[in-house]
Specification:
There is one protein chain. It is built from seven helices and 31 strands. The radius of gyration is 32 Å and the shape is globular. The strands form nine sheets. Strands 1-8-7-4-2-3 form a six-stranded mixed beta sheet, sandwiched between helices. A five-stranded mixed beta sheet has the order 27-28-29-31-30, with no helix packed on it. A four-stranded antiparallel beta sheet has the order 13-12-18-19, with no helix packed on it. Strand 18 and strand 19 form a beta hairpin. The chain is mainly β.
């Protein structure tokens, strides 16, 4: 037709073994949430009753709803523009019928969720003969351009659809061997029925695709040992999840706006932060066998290079020839025949505003300065090739653990490694690595995970770089986010820095002349002790000044912060201590044989002050302590501690061998400086846990 080729030709893109692959991955990925011994079934039960619309066919066929925009029959695909037509769809009822009939068993099914009388009769008969009642229920979602049962894309609630909860309760009230299978796009509330002793097994089968029925039958009848793990948390209530959706427009006709005030605390990280007990936690999943964990080991990669921040300039933006700025040059050619829904590289109007069809086109907007510049730009510290600075992917630690199959059948296990970065604003634990492997009964496998610099780092918005904080770090290995029987401390592998300090991060510390130590109590509190040895001569070595902003030291949610700065005599020279403990954190410094300087900031939403505060430089003829946003000079030893805003802490600044009068602040105005004639040599003990931070 008019010389055009075939557009959107329907090609069968399935591989020869596609069905087997889909069936295998779907069955192995099924998550077993509860099993009191009912599973696996034999297929020889006296009567098998199958219940629920989700077990059967869509009356209009598997592709009966455009873009799968309905919830009729079994749920095997969500709705939206990314859907595809099913070449076929094996329903759970069909597959279970095939299984039972192959064993000369009896099976009946009811796929009307609201036929209460027939449901009750079948459930009662099945229970009376010691059969198995299998209930199917679902919850769907998709893109916002389709509305299903009042749900515009995202779900309006966390309940099962089509009266699924009532169906489960009705069947289980009459059948003492009720098995629940859920096809859902995410978590649902199961609090009303999951502990019912008549419910002997619960499975989450996700959105399984065309082999749905065959895959669930493989699990129900033991051909496949389920090994899936939950990618989200089943909470006790809707409120357990913390953050919620935006249900009503909050920006007029514009796109809804969200400040994401929850930060990284979603799903299991929110449950951990708020001490919410989940019903089934992130990463949870049972098996037809059992596993044990033992022998965690951590190897520090001492040969890992130091992290070097990216520097230099990008190339200037290239110019590719000369283009016309006349819109008429880009309109459809005269007489051009457009194929419907096909996208063309032409304008459909003579003006840009007309072509955009946007009523807000050309509304004045102040673009950021330099946003249209083609000049070379400074490279960001964390930038680099794909994935960012290559140093982020240096391997710092290798963690190993032994996983043993303690049951009687072969099964796959998914060991998971979580890390506690340790800061007061960090998640309690965060998933970093996992693996999956088959283990025969009585056998063991070694789980190995490599941790990169990125894995143990925080993003620092001030320096626009990834930094390793100075808080103690712990790795945990287990079978879910709440079942972590193994733990080990990560020893310091070089320099650390608390986010917000603005260090360039391109130097490494050396072991030997100073030490840092930390002790960890799981998920509760930590103490940090940092000692810096100095070689110094001072004209005055005594005197004190202190200032504090504090509440009680109980570590309450409202926070506790105390801070002092003092100058006191040491065994040889002077010492300066600045400490800012918050909510379960404490710090201290010691002096032995030489002057010492200890600085530990207040990392949470606390500020700290010392004796005096000034926005300009200050001077003193005797020992003093001051708070300042700029450097100070003094004729004798002194210390200056800057009050740090939310997320900031104070640091010691100044290159080795440089007197304080010429020190340069590397922390964007928030710095603790050592003044006078003190010469500081600072190093970090790389064999100790995280506890020291310097910006030399």
């Amino acid at each position: 037709m008019e010389g055009y080729g075939i557009v959107n030709y329907h090609v069968d893109a399935r591989a020869q073994n596609a069905a087997a692959h889909i069936r295998n991955s779907t069955s192995r990925g099924t998550v077993l949430l509860k099993n009191t011994g009912a599973l696996p079934l034999t297929g020889k039960e006296k009567l098998t009753g199958v219940f629920g619309e989700d077990a059967g066919d869509n009356t209009n066929g598997p592709n009966g709803c455009s873009d799968r925009g309905c919830d009729n029959g079994t749920l095997a695909m969500g709705w939206g523009s990314g859907t595809a037509n099913f070449p076929y769809l094996v329903t759970p009822l069909t597959a279970i019928q095939n299984e039972v009939r192959s064993n000369d068993g009896s099976i009946e099914g009811i796929t009307d969720n609201y036929d209460y009388s027939q449901i009750a009769l079948l459930a009662q008969r099945t229970g009376e003969v010691g059969g198995a009642c299998i209930v199917f229920a679902n919850a769907d979602a998709g893109e916002g351009y389709i509305i299903v049962d009042g749900n515009e894309g995202d779900r309006n609630n966390l309940t099962l659809w089509q009266g699924g909860d009532n169906l489960i309760q009705n069947v289980s009230s009459l059948c003492n061997n009720t098995i629940v299978v859920m096809h859902t796009v995410g978590p649902v509330l199961v609090d009303a029925w999951y502990e019912n002793p008549n419910i002997t097994a619960i499975l989450w089968a996700g959105i399984p695709g065309q082999e749905s029925g065959n895959a669930i039958a493989d699990v129900l009848y033991g051909r496949v040992n389920p090994s899936g793990k939950l990618p989200f948390t089943f909470g006790a209530t809707r409120e357990s999840y913390g953050t919620d959706l935006i249900y009503e427009a909050n920006n007029g006709v514009g796109a809804p706006q969200d400040d994401f005030s929850e930060g990284v605390f979603i799903d299991y990280r929110a449950f951990d932060k708020h001490n919410e007990t989940p019903i089934y936690e992130f990463g949870f999943g049972l098996s037809y066998t059992t596993f044990s964990y033992s022998n965690i080991q951590v190897q520090v990669n001492t040969s890992a290079p130091g992290y070097v921040a990216t520097t230099g300039q990008t190339p200037s933006a290239p110019i590719y020839g000369i283009i016309s700025n006349s819109t008429s040059d880009y309109q459809f050619p005269a007489g051009f025949h457009q194929v419907p829904l096909y996208i063309y590289p032409y304008l459909n109007a003579s003006t840009l505003s007309g072509a955009s069809m946007d009523p807000q086109y050309a509304i004045p907007y102040d673009f950021p300065a330099g946003s249209s510049s083609s000049a070379a730009q400074p490279r960001l510290p964390a930038s680099g090739p794909s994935g960012g600075n290559p140093g982020l992917y240096d391997i710092l630690y290798t963690v190993t653990a032994t996983v043993s199959n303690t049951g009687s059948v072969a099964g796959e296990e998914v060991p998971q490694l979580y890390i506690s970065i340790g800061g007061p604003n960090d998640p309690v634990v965060a998933l970093r690595q996992f693996d999956k492997f088959m283990i025969q009964p009585g056998q063991s496998r070694t789980f190995t995970a490599q941790l990169t610099r990125r894995d143990v780092s925080n993003w620092d918005p001030v320096s626009q770089n990834w930094v390793i904080s100075c808080y103690p770090k712990t790795v945990y290995v287990g079978s879910s986010s709440r079942k972590l029987p193994l733990k080990a401390a990560l020893q310091s592998n070089g320099k650390c820095q608390n986010p917000g300090m603005g260090s360039s991060g391109n130097s490494t510390s050396t072991a030997g002349s100073s030490s840092a130590s930390a002790s960890s109590s799981t998920f509760t509190g930590y103490s940090n002790s940092t000692t810096f040895k100095t070689s110094a001569s001072t004209k005055a070595s005594s005197g004190s000044a202190s200032g504090s902003a504090s509440s009680s030291a109980s570590g309450s949610a409202s926070g506790s912060a105390s801070r002092s700065a003092s100058l006191s005599s040491g065994s040889v020279g002077s010492s300066a201590t600045s400490a800012g403990p918050v909510t379960g954190y404490g710090s201290s410094s010691t002096s032995s044989g030489a002057s010492s300087l200890s600085s530990y900031g207040s990392p949470s939403a606390y500020s700290s002050t010392s004796a005096s505060s000034s926005k300009s430089s200050s001077s003193s003829k005797s020992s003093s302590a001051s708070v300042s946003k700029s450097s100070s000079s003094s004729r004798s030893s002194s210390a200056s501690a800057t009050g740090a805003p939310s997320g900031y802490s104070s640091t010691a600044a100044g290159p080795t061998g440089t007197s304080a009068s010429t020190m340069t602040s590397y922390t964007y105005g928030y710095t603790t400086t050592v003044q006078g004639t003190v010469t500081v040599t600072t190093t970090c003990d790389t064999t100790a846990p995280y506890g020291a931070y310097t910006t030399w």
